[in-house]
Amino acid sequence: MKHILFICLGNICRSPAAEEVMRVKLAQCGEAAHYVVDSAGMIDYHEGELPDSRMRHHAAARGYRLTHHSRPVCVADFDRFDLVVAMDHDNLRRLERFAQREGRVWREVVLLADYLRHHQSATVPDPYYGGPEAFELALDLIEDGCDGLCEALMARTAQNK
Length: 161
Ligand code: 4NP
Description:
It is built from 5 helices and 4 strands. The chain is of the alpha/beta class. Strand 1, helix 1 and strand 2 form a beta-alpha-beta unit. The protein is globular and about 45 Å long. The relative contact order is 0.20. 4-nitrophenyl phosphate binds next to loops.
């Protein structure tokens, strides 16, 4: 079983959407039984909250039901997750600072945007202060990136066989 953790700042827009999109993509590839997917944020301002209603609305229009409750990343996550997938470079810096503070290392950290196949973007930009188009763009990037990530994970599994 491989454990994947999606990370953004607040854990109410991008990472809970990525978590659910990835779950759906893995199920479509017949790989759901081999993965546990979760998400967390680098801040605790929204702890316990459902995803932002705008993200829930835009995701629902694409068939994704977002039910995750926001939580900040925690020390147990170092042991629990094989792969941490961040949305932007600020997330990466905060993940590294958190690891240094705790004297721990993440097993593997990547950017979701590195797996984009159809879009060109270095990050999945934060839609929180944007309009509807910012949420649509975030979902476009998340769907594209999760497709690419799924493919990369399948290729890895095939190599290790
Ligand atoms: P997210 O968006 O990182 O995609 O969940 C944000 C949500 C809340 C805040 C920032 C970004 N905030 O500052 O409260």
